[in-house]
Specification:
The chain has 13 helices and eight strands. The protein is an alpha/beta fold and 281 residues long. Strands 3-4-2-5-1-6-7-8 form an eight-stranded mixed sheet, with helices on both faces. The protein is globular and about 55 Å long.
């Protein structure tokens, strides 16, 4: 696919992109990354933004399951030339669009450069339709995860304030710094039951990242542990839509507002809003 016309289109896209690209990663699986992604997309859409969630866990799709989407045309079919971009695109799911991946195809975890060119063509084609394109990447530090991070304007790492999750989050940060010299990462702590402790964990992680990686970390928010999240996941609906008054829903609303520089009614961590005010407008 790397012909002259595509090369020119890609250069034009890289130089003058319309969408703001966000990569949501975790390092460790099971920390609530996909749940954060779909609820974050819901709230950005509620704030009037045009949003696409791209399931970047190409061989182990989760976004369609979380949203109870029926998927027939897949990214595998697209890469094989058997489906178009608009065949796959799912429109206006809870106010945002979804580009689903595939499930159970190991080869999608190890794509060739040609296949990545085909994937980049998706973004080139859809770029002027959205304010935000969010990559819900796979867990870990695979080549695919790191590549999606490399083309993103913003990287969000979802983790938990416990040792194994923090260790894996730091390992991910180390890889993207060494591979692409990424200097800024935004952190979200999920399943928080003690905000002060979570603040302390963030302060330690920020200090280590600055000292050993020369990387700056910003705290986007805390998501309180909330039993309603598990109910919503079982119902295959975003909790911020199913029950917008729960603790988690209020916290994710704050994350979205903070991200675009909108006022946050109740701050849960000192100076967080000041860090983000107007940065992503």
């Amino acid at each position: 696919m790397t012909d002259q016309a595509f090369t020119l289109r890609r250069r034009a896209w890289e130089a003058n992109r319309n969408s703001h690209y966000i990569s949501v990663s975790s390092g460790k699986g099971g920390v609530g990354k996909t749940n954060f992604t779909v609820n974050f997309a819901c709230q950005l859409a509620n704030l009037g933004k045009k949003v696409l969630v791209f399931d970047a866990d190409l061989g182990l799709a989760n976004v369609d399951i979380m949203l109870s989407l029926s998927v027939t045309a897949t990214i595998k079919k697209y890469l094989e030339g058997r489906a178009t971009i608009d065949d796959i695109l799912k429109k206006n799911i809870y106010g945002f669009d979804v580009f689903p991946a595939s499930s159970g195809f190991m080869e999608l975890a190890h794509l060739s450069d040609e296949d990545f060119d085909k994937i980049f063509n998706i973004f080139i084609t859809l770029d002027d339709r959205y304010d935000f394109i969010i990559f819900d990447t796979g867990a870990g530090i695979s080549d695919a995860v790191v590549r999606f991070s490399s083309i993103s304007d913003t990287i969000i790492v979802v983790t938990q304030p416990e040792p194994t999750a923090i260790t894996d989050a730091y390992a991910f940060m180390k890889v993207i710094k060494q591979t692409y010299d990424i200097k800024l990462v935004n952190v979200v702590f999920n399943r928080v039951d003690d905000i002060q402790n979570s603040d302390n964990v963030f302060a330690s992680l920020k200090n280590v990242a600055s000292k050993f990686l020369s990387m700056d970390l910003r705290l986007l928010g805390h998501l309180r542990d909330d039993k309603n999240v598990r109910k919503a996941i079982r119902a295959q609906k975003p909790v911020s839509i199913l029950d917008p008054k729960t603790a988690f829903s209020k916290d994710i609303q704050d994350c979205a507002r903070r991200f675009i520089g909108a006022p946050v009614e109740k701050q849960k961590s000192a100076n967080v809003y000041d860090l983000f005010k107007g940065v992503f407008k």
